[in-house]
Amino acid sequence: MTLEEKIAHLQETVMTEARSEGNAIIDNHKKALESLFEKHKKEATAQSEVRIKSETLRARRQVNQAAAKAETELKRALGKTQNELKVRLFDEVKELLSDFTKTDKYLDYLCSKIREAARFADGEEMTIYISPSDKEKQTELEKRTGMTITISEYDFMGGMRAVIRGRNILIDHSFQAAVDHEYHQFSFAAGGAGIE
Predict the structure, then answer these.
(1) Structural domain contains residue 110
(2) Residue 38: which domain range?
(3) 97 DSSP assignment
(4) CATH label of the domain that carries residue 128
(5) Is 34 among the domain residues?
(6) Mean pLDDT in each 10-residue stretch from start to end of the chain (196 residues)?
(7) At the top level of its lineage, which domain of life is listed (predicted)?
(8) Do 130 and 94 share a structural domain?
(9) How would you classify the pairing of strands 186-189 and 169-174?
(10) H or E segment to which residue 162 belongs
């Protein structure tokens, strides 16, 4: 069963239970009011009708309050579950990125991003940074790209950053920035998971 199906099932179950409780409340009040109405029918028909209306409104308010409470609790549980799943999902993404940084394709990726930054700089002085966790790749990257590579003071999970000081430009192809951006953009949509 998918997460969406579980959430839908949970919502349906809670709403069915709330409706059932609401119907029971209405039924109980209706029976009590009908009995009272029959006892005092001869004496105070008008007074009984007013009382029935009053009790029915009160019962409806109770049903609405019970339904609203159930819906609030469901939304709270749904939000908590979605947040837990989002954290777990992005933990898995970070693990996959960590695994990727150990492959030859990652070295190719870094080279392509460094060359892309160099083309963008168009000969201007530029400082290229890699994450401290990629320190062992520095020599190979310099050999492949012909660029001087600097080890950043801050770990950014992989990828690269470049600074063109003359134009005050930061080129950020760090995995940390990409993951942070996607994390903040990600939300669970009504029909499934996605990015809004």
Answers:
(1) yes
(2) 3-100
(3) H
(4) 3.30.2320.30
(5) yes
(6) 78 82 82 73 73 89 91 91 92 95 96 96 95 96 96 95 95 96 86 51
(7) Bacteria
(8) no
(9) unpaired
(10) strand 159-164
Co-location of 75 and 121 in the same domain: no
Closest CA to 110 of 163, 160, 148: 160
Q: Are 179 and 97 in contact (CB under 8 A)?
A: yes
DSSP secondary structure string for all residues of 24-93: HHHHHHHHHHHHHHHHTTTT-HHHHHHHHHHHHHHHHHHHHHHHHHHHHHHHHHHHHHHHHHHHHHHHHH
Q: Whole-structure pTM over 0.90, yes or no? A: no
CB of 154 within 8 A of CB of 176? no
Number of domains in the chain: 2
**Same domain membership, residue 73 and residue 17:** yes
The HSE-up count of residue 167 (CA atoms within 13 Å, CB side) is: 14
Instruction: Tell me the backbone φ, ψ of residue 2, rounded to 5 degrees.
Output: -75, 165
